[in-house]
Amino acid sequence: GRLEAVTQQMGYHPQYLDSFLKTQHYLMHMDGPLPFDCRHYIAIMAAARHQCRYLVNLHVLQFLRAGGDPQWLRGLDFIPPKLRNLNEINKILAHRPWLITKEHIEKLLKISEWSWSLAELVHAVVLLAHCHALTSFVFGCGCEQDEGPGGRGSLKPLSPGNQCFCEATAGNGCSQELLRINRKRSLDSCMELDSLRERMQRIHVETEGREEMRLLQQDREEGEGQGVEVVAAEHCSDPCVGLSPLADTDGEVTGATNLACYMQDPDFGYQDFARRDEDQAQVFRVQDYSWEDHGFSLVNRLYSDIGHLLDEKFRMVDGLQSSAMAKRQGCEPSVFKRGIWNYIHCMFGIRYDDYDYAEVNQLLERMLKVYIKTVTCYPEKTNSEMFDRFWKQFKHSEKVHVNLLILEARMQAELLYALQAITQYMI
């Protein structure tokens, strides 16, 4: 009867949880341009970019329950070309969204028999951004890790056979009830889970055991535009090393065994938007293209009502109370939250002309900045030591709040680049 780990963590902020669940349910289970099995496969592709086994396993089982072809779970070489063609923008949005162009959009929309419709592509882009950002929350709050002595509480991931959190709501306010109700599994659902496990074990090949991720190495400082001190990107080890089955307490395989099969070009990862030894990349200026004035109307027109749900979620995280966190820094809550939000957008090359970026260096301690950058840019490298070290005076609910800001700021950044490219294609 354990609660799903993501829902449990977001439950520290029930109003936000309601908004998140409505959006998740709409994306995965309500009417939309994409077939239901494709939605879950796109989620698998997105989560695999950050080696998020927790989300991959969850969506693998949901994919099968939606009637998906088990052969697709053998990897990208076994899926329809139309879906496989999405891999390029999945890779770019996940790691360097500023590289996406109208040419990427045009290629997907004009590939003869494998072409995407504009509405399908918008649905897919929202799914990709949603799942990329959610991997940051999953790693940032420890949902990928087993609970243990000295751990962060009840953060052990559920067996993927439990109810998917995106099925937990039909779009109404139910978070309080979710936090009270124990989940029950009938004999039928247990038999279904066993059947799915057997099918997956026949499909996947065992890989080497998981190796522990390296701890974040000693950071070096680099300046990045307008006086913002942005912690430098780390040189990461091969992301395919140590991929292994997720086993339950009995050692039984419960999910995908080889995440590498769901992605191409695994060495492609985040790089600092502007490096001293490279030419200045084109800065994305929000006064030229913003969510409020441009992105919202475009996405809502091509994928009905999703714009309202996303906008509500952005506003909800902005409205969360953070007076205690801000008080410690001697500033107003809105100032503190905007500092975090703008720092995240800065790492993706998004700038606000009306903001003094010197405030970021004053508001955010170095360890907090290291944590934010890791969870945002390469969440798979987050570890419990980092979570425990960043601002020890934070309450757990406040750390969850920071991770919600990371989730939403990252998602909006990806959407801004993708929707701008779509707009440029349409023009």
From TrEMBL:
Query: Which terms in the Gene Ontology molecular function aspect does this entry carry?
Result: L-leucine binding; oxidoreductase activity, acting on peroxide as acceptor
Task: Tell me, in one coarse class, where this protein mainly resides.
Answer: cytoplasm
> Does this entry carry the keyword Transferase?
no
Catalytic activity as recorded in UniProt: a hydroperoxide + L-cysteinyl-[protein] = S-hydroxy-L-cysteinyl-[protein] + an alcohol
- A GO cellular-component term linked to this record: nucleus
Pfam families, A to Z: PA26
- Keyword match Iron-sulfur: no
Q: Please give the Gene3D superfamilies that the UniProt record associates with this protein.
A: AhpD-like
Q: Where in the cell is it found?
A: Cytoplasm
Keywords, sorted A to Z: Cytoplasm, Oxidoreductase
Q: Which domain of life is it from?
A: Eukaryota
An example of a Gene Ontology BP annotation on this entry? positive regulation of macroautophagy
> What family is this protein classified in?
Belongs to the sestrin family.
Q: What is the recorded name of this protein?
A: Sestrin-3
